[in-house]
Amino acid sequence: MEFLFRKRPEVLAYRRFYGNEELIVLNNLTDQEYVLRVDTEGYRKLLGNYEGVKAGNGQLTLRPYETTTLEKIQRQSTSF
Length: 80
Fold this sequence. Notes:
Elements: E1 2-4, E2 11-18, E3 21-28, E4 34-37, E5 43-48, E6 54-56, E7 59-62, E8 67-72
């Protein structure tokens, strides 16, 4: 497990690895929105308490008390 944004006490965030799986878990602990530099390319939302994800251009906005889990999309290998 790798903690992210350690200097932002408003946000509890970490990246978790298990085998070939990778998750990013983001939690906003306040009643304010926070914009974080997170590259969400290649990830899909797995869980969360809001509809959708406010992300783009290398940034993600966490809404008040939002928690979201992003799962890295695994590429399927093709056998010939």
